[in-house]
Design goal:
The strands form two sheets. The protein has a five-stranded parallel β-sheet, sandwiched between helices. The chain has one domain: P-loop containing nucleotide triphosphate hydrolases (Rossmann fold). It contains ten helices and eight strands. The structure holds adenosine monophosphate.
């Protein structure tokens, strides 16, 4: 399956992408993670990206499209499918993605829009903690690690992202409304849009997704050809 996850910051795209990856044995590509990798290198490009990300602004369509294209096309598991999380974020990126996938002969199956309210988003993101080592997600109230500030999976240190503070979250939401929301119509016009209520907990969203996939003919066909 080739899936794009859409939705505001904090909708749970990363958490659901991890679930989908497990369920379908496909790759999970997060544009935010790709950029954070670049930032970690401390290169000139990394510092430029950091300035934009910490303001809640988007990096250029050209740069992110190039980085995602590289990541997608060099992954040996590409033929199994992918869940793209955080890309595309503008209509131009969505058009570019269609071109890239057409070149690879691997068109998108569907775009899943995760709808979430501002109140839920603020609670989720201000309390979110991320493992510096493996990227696993925790929350100071709803998903506490067993040992304070340490990842349950790999023991790595947990940290709060520089853009997970209330001011930057509000800015990211504005950017989402202006630049990203129009993509919903782009995929609806292609007949590829599915929607899910992402105000609920990951487990509930997961079972809604499974129900949705069980009703999806192309998923059922791909599943039976794998077995
Ligand atoms: P995320 O981890 O998806 O919340 O992304 C964190 C930040 O990285 C965003 O707020 C943007 O600054 C930047 N970013 C991630 N994906 C994209 C994209 N597709 N286009 C432009 N900027 C992006």
């Amino acid at each position: 399956m080739r899936i794009v996850l859409l939705g505001p910051p904090g909708a749970g795209k990363g958490s659901l992408a991890a679930v989908i990856k497990e369920m379908m044995d496909i790759i999970h590509i997060s544009s935010g993670d790709i950029l954070r990798e670049e930032m970690k290198k401390g290169s000139k490009l990394g510092l430029e990206i950091k300035g934009l990300v910490e303001k809640g602004a988007l990096v250029s369509d050209e740069l992110i499209t190039k980085l995602v294209e590289q990541k997608v096309s060099e992954d040996p598991k590409l033929s199994k499918g992918f869940a793209l999380d955080g890309f595309p974020r503008t209509t131009h990126q969505a058009q570019e993605l269609d071109h890239i996938l057409a070149k690879l002969g691997k068109p998108l199956d569907f775009a899943l829009c995760m709808d979430a309210s501002l109140k839920v988003i603020l609670t989720r993101l201000t309390g979110r903690r991320v493992c510096r080592n493996c990227g696993a997600l925790f929350h100071i109230k709803t998903k506490q690690p067993k040992k304070p500030n340490l990842c349950d999976l790999c023991g790595g240190e947990l940290y709060q992202r520089g853009d997970d503070n209330e001011d930057t979250i509000r800015k990211r939401m504005q950017v989402y409304e202006i630049s990203t929301k129009p993509i919903i119509d782009y995929y609806a016009a292609q007949g590829k849009l599915k929607r899910i209520n992402a105000d609920r907990e990951t487990e509930q969203v997961r079972s809604d997704l499974i129900k949705m996939l069980n009703e999806d003919k192309s998923y059922q066909n791909q599943k039976s050809s794998r077995n």
